[in-house]
Design a protein that fits this description.
Elements (H helix, E strand, L loop, with lengths): L2 H20 L6 H8 L3 H7 L3 H22 L8 H15 L10 H9 L4 H27 L9 H22 L6 H12 L3
């Protein structure tokens, strides 16, 4: 990887960590430059604006992270209902990257930026659509393999599960404890059991 590419990627990763803890709108370019330890010239060489950098974070950091952490694990367990529960339990209780006090980065970006920035909304919708399509497809396959009842609407289940995940992340932020996640996980397990 060339030095310019390495510098750009370093800016994105460090800026993402800063934005994840502080929020996008309250994080200034000066703070990003100070955190990444690059010059203003170097920052503006890679990104014309803060929003251009923000979109790069969504497309180059969040999207691959979603695939690796939110989608790929769904295919490691044969029964899709077990896979969905295990994924949610891991994301909420075991993943060190996602901090309880800061919530879900994709959800945070969606709540903070979608009303104000059409490009952010489009990019975030694409990421969410990818997760929805993957989980829906998994449930449909589960119907074919007799893990899931034939009458189950896979898309509705997916939207319900993901909505619960995003919502419980916000409860976690308010309570600042993973214990806030337990009611969701308990009810999710019960709900998924009804789909067999």
């Amino acid at each position: 990887m060339k030095k310019a590419e390495t510098t750009r990627l370093s800016i994105l990763h460090k800026a993402f960590k800063l934005i994840y803890t502080k929020g996008y709108q309250t994080t200034s370019i000066d703070e990003i430059i100070a955190t990444t330890q690059v010059t203003k010239g170097a920052f503006y060489y890679h990104f014309k604006t803060k929003d251009e950098m923000g979109l790069a974070i969504i497309n180059e950091i969040l999207k691959p992270s979603l695939t690796e952490s939110f989608i790929d694990p769904l295919y490691t367990i044969e029964n899709p209902l077990d896979a969905i529960y295990t994924l949610m339990e891991n994301l909420l209780m075991k993943t060190e990257f996602l901090k309880v006090e800061y919530g879900c980065p994709t959800s945070n970006f969606t709540q903070e930026m979608t009303p104000w920035n059409v490009d952010f909304g489009r990019a975030l919708k694409e990421i969410t659509k990818l997760w929805i399509q993957s989980m829906t497809s998994l449930i449909e396959k589960g119907k074919e393999n007799a893990f899931v009842r034939k009458d189950v609407n896979a898309k509705h289940v997916t939207v319900f599960v993901i909505s619960g995940y995003w919502g419980i992340r916000n409860f976690g932020k308010l309570e600042n404890t993973k214990k806030a996640y337990l009611p969701y996980l308990n009810q999710l397990k019960t709900y998924l059991h009804t789909l067999q």
